[in-house]
What does this fold into?
Amino acid sequence: MTLPKQVRIGSILYKVEAEEALIAKAEGSTGYCNNTRAVIGIDASLADDIAHEVLTHEVVEAINYQLQLGLTHTQIAGVAFLLSDITL
Ligand SMILES: [Zn+2]
It folds into this structure.
């Protein structure tokens, strides 16, 4: 899977960046969502299916932030896991 260059989440256009060695720099994290810079970072070394699931996870993180849903991280991970299965 090729990552999209950007994703629109609500009214905000997030830039999607594949980052080299993100896992090492971010102490094991495979992705992140920076809501103030509107950037989603994904580790560049991930297998396609994993990168897709991580991107979906970070999109759910952004939705949780924008809508102030107050989801726990476990809930975010669960929703993202299910969504990534239907959006392939
Ligand atoms: Zn997360």
Summary: The first strand starts at residue 6 and ends at 9.
